[in-house]
């Protein structure tokens, strides 16, 4: 039946993953594996309860997805890089060569395609990194920054597209540059970011980054320890800098591959600092599986951060697509469900799968500095419907998401 003006009604035969319900006792429903089952009650445009039903589950409802780490400026450029493949250094060189072909039309075409893919996958929030370039004047922003700024404005209603300026931490070691760069980023409502590897100036750069971010009210985002070399220790240095600065804003660290080198005591020490500092970690299986652990034959190291150990210690771990069809990863998809499915295989994320869904929903939004959305109490427009009957089937990628708001009328059996 058609919906009424208040968007009240019932969608029958619904599953809701238990980890995506903030108040399961009051929301209702019957336990069904790692989900709650029932008829979903909508009132005044919001999901308010699951009521008992004898109907078998027919569909699954989750909040809209979020991807906290993509590169829309680089995506879909691999087709003009014939034969490119290799480690991180090889990818950086290939992408720098490709930049000679970047103009406004090229960046807009590829980035728009990536954004559309995120939308079609069910995302309503994403953060794209933008290489800040080598211009000594921080007020001279890269062309890609401007193009993605246009996409921020043109994005579908309700979609949050964040831009993170990806600088070299060495440049931020200059306090004047760091301050001016942060001021420029703040002017556009962006995120201050940096690449932290083995640079000798990284501590000074981190101190300046936290000072500038605090001064201008910015969130921070770091590409850190993107490798398996034994001397990479940026993640702990970031945590130490955050604690020393007493920084209260959101901090997200992507990659952190080198944690795989450390023993249990070292990982526990670093994880404790991350928890104290409120720092989230983005695991990026798509790109790290491709680039890391290259030994000239079949790799025997996954190149992923310590997902289990960090989560067990209370660190917020989220997942991102990272690079899609560019010099860093020649394949891939802008699809958080696909990313989580890959992480299940690569990081041995065993059932129950509902426990992992926050890494692409509630936890991912929180890492972006956004309010998390759970199914209970969510606006209809913030929910997705999948024609699947388990979280395992959801992660298989067999079904595409439908915005719940577009399918209310067809799904209703009756009005309430």
CATH superfamily of the largest domain: Metal-dependent hydrolases
Instruction: Tell me, rounded to a whole number, the average pLDDT.
Output: 94
Number of domains: 2
The CATH level-2 architecture of the largest domain is identified as: Alpha-Beta Barrel
Work out the radius of gyration: 22 Å
The CATH class assignment of the largest domain is Alpha Beta
Note the main attributes of this structure.
disordered N terminus, eight-stranded mixed sheet, TIM Barrel, 16 strands, 2 domains, 34% helix, Urease, subunit C, domain 1, 416 residues, alpha/beta, 15 helices, single chain
TL;DR?
The chain is of the alpha/beta class.
Task: List strands and helices in order, with pairings.
Layout: E1 9-17, H1 24-27, E2 30-32, E3 35-43, E4 46-51, E5 59-63, E6 65-70, H2 88-98, H3 104-120, E7 123-131, H4 143-154, E8 160-168, H5 169-172, H6 175-187, E9 191-196, H7 202-216, E10 220-224, H8 234-245, E11 251-255, H9 264-277, E12 279-283, H10 285-291, H11 307-312, E13 317-319, H12 336-346, H13 362-367, E14 383-386, H14 391-395, E15 402-403, H15 408-411, E16 412-414
Helix pairs in contact: 3-4, 6-7, 7-8, 8-9
What does this structure look like?
There is one protein chain. This protein folds into two domains: 9-63 and 374-414, Urease, subunit C, domain 1 (Roll), CATH 2.30.40; 65-367, TIM Barrel (Alpha-Beta Barrel). The chain has 15 helices and 16 strands. It has helices at 24-27, 88-98, 104-120, 143-154, 169-172, 175-187, 202-216, 234-245, 264-277, 285-291, 307-312, 336-346, 362-367, 391-395, 408-411, and strands at 9-17, 30-32, 35-43, 46-51, 59-63, 65-70, 123-131, 160-168, 191-196, 220-224, 251-255, 279-283, 317-319, 383-386, 402-403, 412-414. Strands 1, 2, 3, 4, 5, 14, 15 and 16 form an eight-stranded mixed beta sheet that branches. The chain has an eight-stranded parallel beta sheet with strand order 6-7-8-9-10-11-12-13.
């Amino acid at each position: 039946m058609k919906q009424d003006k208040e968007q009240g009604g019932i969608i029958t035969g619904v599953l809701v993953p238990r980890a995506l319900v903030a108040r399961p006792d009051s929301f209702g429903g019957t336990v069904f594996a790692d989900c709650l089952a029932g008829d979903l009650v909508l009132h005044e445009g919001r999901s308010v309860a699951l009521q008992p039903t004898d109907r078998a589950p027919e569909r699954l409802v989750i909040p809209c997805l979020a991807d906290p780490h993509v590169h829309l400026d680089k995506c879909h450029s691999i087709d003009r890089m014939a034969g490119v493949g290799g480690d991180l250094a090889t990818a950086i060189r290939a992408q720098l060569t490709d930049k000679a072909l970047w103009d406004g039309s090229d960046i807009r075409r590829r980035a728009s395609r990536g954004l559309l893919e995120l939308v079609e996958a069910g995302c309503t929030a994403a953060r794209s990194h933008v290489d800040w370039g080598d211009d000594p004047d921080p007020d001279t922003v890269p062309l890609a920054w401007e193009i993605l700024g246009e996409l921020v404005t043109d994005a579908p209603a309700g979609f949050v597209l964040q831009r993170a300026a990806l600088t070299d931490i060495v440049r931020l070691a200059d306090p004047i540059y760091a301050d001016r760069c942060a001021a420029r980023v703040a002017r556009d409502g962006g995120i201050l970011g940096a690449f932290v590897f083995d640079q000798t100036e990284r501590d000074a750069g981190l101190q300046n980054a936290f000072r500038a971010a605090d001064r201008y009210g910015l969130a921070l985002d770091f590409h850190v320890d993107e490798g398996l070399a034994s001397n990479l220790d940026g993640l702990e240095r970031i945590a130490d800098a955050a604690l020393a600065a007493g920084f209260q804003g959101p901090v997200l660290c992507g990659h952190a591959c080198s944690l795989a080198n450390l023993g249990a005591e070292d990982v526990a020490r670093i994880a404790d600092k991350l928890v104290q500092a409120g720092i989230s970690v983005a695991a990026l299986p798509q790109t790290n599986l491709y680039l890391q652990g290259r030994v000239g034959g079949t790799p025997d190291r996954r190149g992923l951060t310590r997902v289990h150990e960090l989560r067990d210690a209370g660190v917020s771990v989220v997942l991102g697509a990272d690079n899609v069809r560019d010099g860093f990863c020649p394949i891939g998809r802008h699809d958080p469900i696909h990313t989580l499915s890959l992480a299940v295989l690569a990081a041995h994320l065993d059932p129950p799968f509902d426990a992992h869904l926050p890494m692409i929903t509630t936890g991912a939004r929180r890492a972006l500095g956004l309010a998390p959305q759970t199914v209970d109490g969510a606006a209809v427009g913030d929910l997705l419907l999948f024609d699947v009957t388990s979280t395992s089937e959801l992660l298989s990628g067999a079904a595409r998401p439908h915005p719940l708001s577009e399918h209310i009328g067809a799904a209703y059996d009756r009005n309430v």
